[in-house]
User: Fold this.
Amino acid sequence: MVKHGNMFRPYGATWHWRPSLCLADFKQASLSCRKVRVEIFALLTEAAIWYYGQRNARTELPAMIIGEPRLNAEGNKLRIQAPVEYAGVRTHLWFSMDERYRPYLTTEKCDGFLVGLLLLAMRLGEDVHLEAPVSAKLLYNLQNHYIRLLRIQIPALHSITIVPTAFDTGDSHECRGEVVTGFSAGIDSFCVLADHFHGSPPPGYRISRLVFNNVGSHGEYDSEPARALFNRRYDLLRGYPEEVGLDFVKIDSNLLELLHMDYAQTHLPRNIAAVMMLQKLFGRYLYASAHRYEDCRIGASDNMALSDPVTVHLLSTETLECLSTGCQYSRVRKTQKVAEIEASRRYLNVCTRAEAGGKNCSVCRKCCRTLLTLEMLGEIEKFHDVFDLAAWKRARGGYICYMLGKRGYGLSREIFEYANTIDFRFNLPHRVVGRTWAIGRGLVDAFRGRT
Assistant:
């Protein structure tokens, strides 16, 4: 008799099939095979984890490294600079100003260099390793809030980690606590002065210095023409600070050569980075914001200014408070306040066209928007020294058509709303063209699914 598992048959006899016993054998065999497969998979997993761990140990992931700030004298100019490594490149980020600011340059920490290069690191997807102390307050806000907000505004950016070596809690240096604001002589910056210098601000909010930076507003990609325009504009504007007795700090930089990004989408960290170089001097930075609170929002946008009320204060440190101001006013109200400053009639400068050589071209959209607002306010003739009113008259009709076509959007909407409140009448041809343009734009938006 032959024994085969749990089945028996005599020699020469036929098979007697016993299904229940065969099924039990089959289940037992299947369980054994499954157990073997699980054990093999576990071994392979452990081997893969070991292999990739060894590979990562041998090859470090790319990271940006920001070194310790140092001072470098060049004649009557003084540079504060830090070595930077990123994407296989070794270079320096520097900010330059007059030698007389030496006592106030902050080499004890790398706050400004981190803020200035943050966008570049996020664009490259590289973590940032700091070889100098950083403000604890700044690092907390960057890691927990600002990086996330930047990714919402610019979805192409990557989430990164900042790796500090030491923290600065504000006790590494003294600060004079002066109040500063940027001065470009535009409507926003003049409005800040209307409130915080020409007006009656509370103690601690009166502006004591003005700053003028070369970090991208004079050109975003080509540094030499940008620097030439920066110097030309500074010379055109310096008369106002001299008249009112305010120091006009001029800060040059090579930041735009490293970033290569759109200025309107990145202006906030650029300008705050420059001001952070002087944290021994400045205790409060009033940042001129462009849009009303009603129009501000957090979302993907090519205009960083829309988020100012939420983001500006996140770039503060223990010794430098950054505040957004101006969102409480419409552009029309700002223009009205600026028109009341007598000096603005000689220095108002709103044009961003490089071709204008630092002056107002009087025909671009920004110039026309300001001129139309001044016309509605009955103040336009007072600004004949800074605008070509003849050129404005030629461009006026075209701009009104454009503005009426965009009357549902941003600053154009503010002008249109004000025109209605004062019963300012536009010519019928302008209204027809503007309305046609608006309908066409609405159809395009609807087609693109943006309405």
The radius of gyration is 32 Å. The chain has three domains: 2-58, 65-331, 350-448. The chain is about 45% helix and 15% strand.
